[in-house]
Amino acid sequence: AQSVSQHNHHVILSEAASLELGCNYSYGGTVNLFWYVQYPGQHLQLLLKYFSGDPLVKGIKGFEAEFIKSKFSFNLRKPSVQWSDTAEYFCAVKGSGNTGKLIFGQGTTLQVKP
Amino acid sequence: NAGVTQTPKFRILKIGQSMTLQCTQDMNHNYMYWYRQDPGMGLKLIYYSVGAGITDKGEVPNGYNVSRSTTEDFPLRLELAAPSQTSVYFCASNLGQGHTEAFFGQGTRLTVV
Fold first, then answer.
1. Above 90 in pLDDT, residue A95?
2. Residue A31 pLDDT greater than 80, yes or no
3. How much is the pLDDT for B2?
4. Residue B46 in 3-state DSSP?
């Protein structure tokens, strides 16, 4: 069965620090990968997605992610975090078939200290 | 520009009670989903639908039922609430046909006591 694993459950950073959140997936076929963000009290919003092509994808708010097929990884990065980036981050992979189902990782809570 | 709308936002149920979580979308999306979110567990798929009249079980369907009589609405029914159903529930929709970006509602926080 497909699965997604996020390595860091809780990350605390100071403003201006660099961020990298790990994500690994288990699926050997063609993958569609996503990072969603959930700000406190809000719904999930799409940060970025990878379907094909350039493995380095740019998202909103200065986030980017790199798809490394050989490592089954899709890590999220941001060079300099802000207090407003405090949120929970979810990595997800599209499930098999054509139903659009998403399989989510456990989530990483990011706390940015001002 | 409503997107995906869920009601209610919060609810407290007693064990054994029933309720329906409402979800409606105005984007004419074919695919709709119900997920539950538990701390440290990410989101798990409960049920999904690829069109009106078509529903199917996800990863954690036990204790829930759904229906999809229209493209817009996808209610989730809890018949006999149990403490294990305390969770945050998210409805999502997707245009379908290869478009895999999902749009999420604001969530319903349900507590069963």
1. no
2. yes
3. 78
4. strand
Among B101, B106, B108, B109, the strongest candidate for a mutation testing the A interface, having the largest count of A CBs within 10 A, is B101
Candidates A34, A36, A101; nearest CB to B45: A101
**Residue contact B48–A42, C-beta within 8 A:** no
Report the residue of B27, B37, B41, B43 to disrupt the A interface, i.e. the one with the largest count of A CBs within 10 Å: B43
- Least confidently predicted of A23-27, A70-74, B53-57: A23-27
Task: Specify the amino acid at residue A4.
Answer: V
Backbone angles phi, psi at A37, to 5 degrees: -125, 145
Report how far residue B2's alpha carbon sits from residue A81's, in angstroms, rounded to the nearest whole number.
30
CA separation, residue A8 to residues A5, A108, B21 (Å): 9, 6, 32
* Cα–Cα dist B94/B74, whole Å: 13
Q: Which of B107, B32, B44 is nearest to B70 (CA)?
A: B32
Residues in chain B closer than 8 A to A3 (CB atoms): none
Residues A43-82: pLDDT tens digits?
Answer: 899 999 998 899 999 999 999 999 999 999 999 999 999 9
Residue B5 burial (10 A CB sphere; 0-12, 13-18, 19+): middle
A13 and chain B in contact, CB less than 8 A = no
